[in-house]
Amino acid sequence: MAIRNQLEKLATERNTPCVTISLNTHRTHPDNLQDEIVLKNLLKEAEDRVINEFGKRDVASLLEKIQHVTSEIDVNHNLDSLHIFLSNDTEEIVKSTWETSNSGVHISESFAVRSLIKDVNRSESYLIMLLSQSGVHLYEAVNDGIVAEIKNDDFPFSQTRHYNTFPDKGSDPKHLDDLLREYFNKVDKALVKVSNETGLQCLVICTEDNYSHLQHVADKPSIYIGYAAVDYNKVAPHQIVLQAWEIVKEKQSQHRAKLIDEMKEAVAQGKVLTDLQEIYQASIDGRGDLLIVHQDFSQPVLMTGERTFDLIEDVTVPNAIDDITSTIAWEVLSKNGNVVFTAQDEIKDLGKIVLKTRY
Q1: Higher pLDDT residue, 39 or 76?
Q2: For 77, 168, 263, 291, which has the most beta carbons within 10 A of its beta carbon?
Q3: How far apart, in whole angstroms, are the C-alpha atoms of residue 43 and residue 41?
Q4: What is the C-alpha separation between 184 and 288, in angstroms, rounded?
């Protein structure tokens, strides 16, 4: 199930109760062995809290899921975090390429989906083109993984056939340059076709000189994210995608910094809320345009009405919402607002959670 569809399904479920378990995990042995221990302890905590708060009879299906969900998880294939969503009606397991700052057991009438919102916001689909005069390969990637190599009437390109056939021009740099431009022009047109079909931008792995030539002939320069210098000893798909992902992550960080600047500019316009209760009310009213939450911030609450709550410290209090920021974030996102979870401390000048309103 696509992560966005998964998020929508989980964010809209209401059940008594919904159990969310989140933990950071490890990709390699032997570190991933500790993931088993941490998960076992969290599941035991979840079981005890559910029984103490709801008894056994009405949540028998949920308790069975808690007891057996480990059989669905292979720690040898963990990524950077693991999120488990369980209720009487639901069992969803999500492995993420992002660490979570929301580790632990969360029990409420709804799932704690902030980690999935972060995944949606930072999940990036893009193209990677390995470009050289000896051939061109094109791949579709999501974050730090290759989805597939693009193979069609154009890709992969064979070695350039635009050779110099005039003996008297063999040392003419302009003629040789024109031949190279012609080759890259064909590559660019083929890439534009794929980009138009997929809506994806492309990061190029190549030499600086080749990227410069490509940019000079590009019909739509905006489809290029940038380039990374090729290391011809590391051109396997699993190697170039890691190289590309570092650049894409940096672009995402720069975009988040711009959104923080946008938030600061909105302060002078009187459009920024910093009070948590006001932020919650604006979010459910559809007034949220941009929500920025520092990733270390969470707040349990106890609802006192449909629009009001009391702040609490003890998440085990009956009917508590473990983290109201999860609810707020979904309300903003589902009503076409932007949501950013960030570790960038610039936002702390305004507060750990701030909302720019539409009006």
Answers
A1: 39
A2: 291
A3: 5
A4: 45
DSSP tag of 169: G
Residue 97 in tokens: 């390429």
Report the pLDDT averaged over residues 238-259: 94
Alpha helices in the chain, H assignment, sequence order: 3-11, 33-54, 60-68, 114-122, 173-198, 208-217, 237-267, 276-284, 324-334
- Number of H helices and E strands in the chain, helices first, is 9, 15
At residue 171 the predicted structure's pLDDT band, cuts being 50, 70 and 90, is: low
β-sheet bridge partners, residue 310: 302
pTM: 0.80
Work out the average pLDDT over 60-66: 97
According to the model, what pLDDT value does residue 180 have? 86
**Whether residue 179 sits in one domain with residue 153:** yes
Q: How far apart are CA 118 and CA 134, in angstroms?
A: 40
For 143: left if phi > 0, alpha if psi spans -120 to 50, otherwise beta; the answer is left
Asked if 155 and 136 count as a contact pair (C-beta separation under 8 A), the reply is yes
Phi, psi of 247 (to 5 degrees): -70, -40
Asked if the structure places residue 28 within a domain, the reply is yes
Q: Are residues 82 and 173 in the same domain?
A: no
Long-range contacts of 49-52 (CB under 8 A, 24+ apart): 49/105, 49/107, 49/316, 50/17, 50/19, 50/107, 52/316
Residue 262 lies in a domain: no
Q: How far is CA 186 from the centre of its chain?
A: 33
Residue 166 clears pLDDT 60, i.e. is over it: no
Among 123, 156, 187, the domain boundary falls at 123
**Residue 85: which CATH number?**
3.30.960.10
The last residue of a domain, from among 67, 95, 123 = 123
Range of the domain at 41: 1-123
pLDDT above 80: residue 1: no
Q: How far apart are CA 334 and CA 337, in angstroms?
A: 7
Residue 235 carries which side chain, given as an amino acid letter?
Answer: V
pLDDT of residue 173: 65
Structural domains of the chain, count: 3
- What's the half-sphere exposure (Cβ side, CA atoms, 13 Å) at 35? 25
